[in-house]
Amino acid sequence: MNAIAVIDVSGLRKRFGKTAALDGLDLTVASGEVHGLLGPNGAGKSTTVRVLLGMLRSDGGTARLLGGDPWQDATTLHRRLAYVPGDVNLWPNLSGGETIDLLGSLRGGLNKARRDALLERFNLDPTKKGRAYSKGNRQKVALIAALASDAELLILDEPTSGLDPLMESVFAECVLEAKTRGATVLLSSHILSEVERLCDRVSIVREGRTVDTGSLAELRHLSRTTITATLARQPTGLDVIGGVYDLVVDGESVSCQVDPDALEKVLRLFTDIGIKALASRPPTLEELFLRYYAGDAQ
Amino acid sequence: MSAKAGVRELVKLAARRDRIMLPLWAYALIGTTASTAYSIKGLYNTPASRQGLVDGITAAPTAAALYGKIYGSSLGAITAWRAAVVTALLAAVMSILLVVRHTRAEEQTGRLELVVSGAVDRFAPLAAALQLTMSVNLSVGVVIGVVLPFLGLPVAGAFLLGLSVAGVGIFFAAVAAVTAQVFESSRSANGAAFAILGAFYLIRAVGDMSPASWLLWLSPVGWVEQARPYTGDHWWVLILELLGTGVAVGMAAQLSRQRDFGSGILPSRPGPRVGGPDTRGVFGLAWRLHRGTLAGWTFGVVVGAVAFGSFVKDINALTGSSRVEKIMSQLGGSQNMTNAYLATIMSVFGVLAAAYAVAVIVRARSEETSGRLETVLAGTAGRTRWVLSHVLFAAFGAGLLLVAGGLGAGLADALRTHDMSAVGTVLGAAMAQWPAALVVAGFAAVLFAAAPTRTAGSWGLLGLFGFLTLIAPSLNAGQTILDLSPFNHVPKVPAAAYSVTPLVILTALALVLAGATVAAFRRRDVLA
Question: Which residue in A58, A275, B186, B328 is a FRET match for B43, CA 20 to 30 A apart?
Fold first, then answer.
């Protein structure tokens, strides 16, 4: 992975009236990576994407896209990217096939052979009129138009909402193929399994700010490991070790979550007692995610 | 139809959703009638002055074409002549918009699916839309009946005027109920209902201008005239309106039984697998979005133009009495009468062309609110090109309508008089309206670019200009107020000489507005 930043955003601010949609957001996406933008509804994911597309003018901070200014150079930059919105609305009187070709012509051409292959893979009937498509099929139209282009950058804003699991997996294959072609992908999502499967790095956003960013391995490193064990006898003294959470002791069975710093102490204690069975697993993205948002309630 | 499950709740829901729109419509309808009665009472307070007005009107077939014939010289008769057809038209427009909005439009967005999945009868949405629309019309009719006597008009005629207007509104609610069953999109349902309204208006206009006055009986818009409030009070015309409504409602009910939820009687056909050469880039997209509507408008304008144009020759024949001839000679001879008629028709075309331009700009706004603009601007087109694709369509679409109107009226006249020079004269007169229509388009575009959430306000502006151009002059409004409308600066060709200066100024103003549109649109946020 080379280090040239395709997207470089720092301290981005955008207000709508009294609400601050973006409040100092940072985002760096390197060339050739699939980058996940994670966050709950209203965190500012779509606003970020719209600033990057030059739809919205930021109130502060800097944003660079493909080496240019997303507001000033919108037209030239858009030649090199393809976008899929989360809620696709099609022209009611244009057929799906016409819409795909129109969107292609609007971004300077598309790969016809790949378009036909994608129509096949996504199992889409291109002769239906826009108003006749279901939500999932509208989403497919926009996805096919974007994936059939040779864009360097794909900006996908919750692109799989409404797709069935079969189509979700077709979508995942297509994203990985795009990556193989050398494209960079910014994938905003809250489907964690999808992000886990596809993304090299993720940025987690909350209330218009980036709360964490890095590869999944890095994020996990900073987070708690879940340990379940069956010991020789009922353990004591686990609850006094700092950095142990969600401790459940049921006779000889133990399960808990442990901070990286406390791992050694816990394992030593287990060894002293005697281990019959031990399983540890890194935190799932879901656990990471919930930990960041647990703060929201406070 | 009212005993069906869910109708009450749906009527309440619709009334709540339209709690601002409905009072405004009611106010516009009642206000049109009441203000007409009030101003006529003030302007023509002696029998002699009223007789003079009636003679003038009888001499001008334009007036008969627009408002219908005048049947008496009492205050009530003049008020009824001036207000009945116009208010009935407004009531019909309101009813069509309301019924389609609460039936087909709701079905199209999928919201109605949520409603019908509840303990709600399948016909409840249609019944509720009709019930609400009919109640609004009826209330307006009753209020007109109550208000006019306060302005000194007899009670019976006031109620007949109000109720016959309401009857037309109710009839067109039923017409819209039928078109909402036939078409799958609310745009087509509205378009078809408006086309029917336009056709009936035209039939009435022809019936009023030609010896074939029996044509009035074929048009529900003519029925309101045939009710003759204050000049005979034909109450039984209300029964005719009721019967017509009953037939249309029966048709709508029958059609709704034959179709699936979400589809129309006319199914939507499959489209092409791939995009053609006309679906390329933003200009291709604008063409696809606007071509159908433009074709419909052009057809309507041509039909209207041919109908009005073929009566130019009869203008002189229609002026019979000695008193009329005296008025005519004061105006400067019969030739001028013909030209005055043509000039008035051209003003109508000018306002229509501007209305088309406003519709284009409002459609551009709906591209933004639907989120489709975002998808387009994510491509390479750029904001300037996109906004120009719509502004230019508005401008040249309006121009095309004026060419169609001018050619249609000119050819129809020329074929009857065997004088081909009429084509050039009438076409030139129509084209003189173009700069004024462009100015209206420019105001609408600037509103869209600078204050997008207020885009629909351009309809209000158009309504104001239309009023100042087509109605206010006969109400003796001051020149300063009349000057606000760009159409009042257009030389009244061919009645007046072709003066270039105002046309150049209007065109320059339109260009400035177009420039402001591009500048403002490049600067603002695009929001779904």
Answer: B328
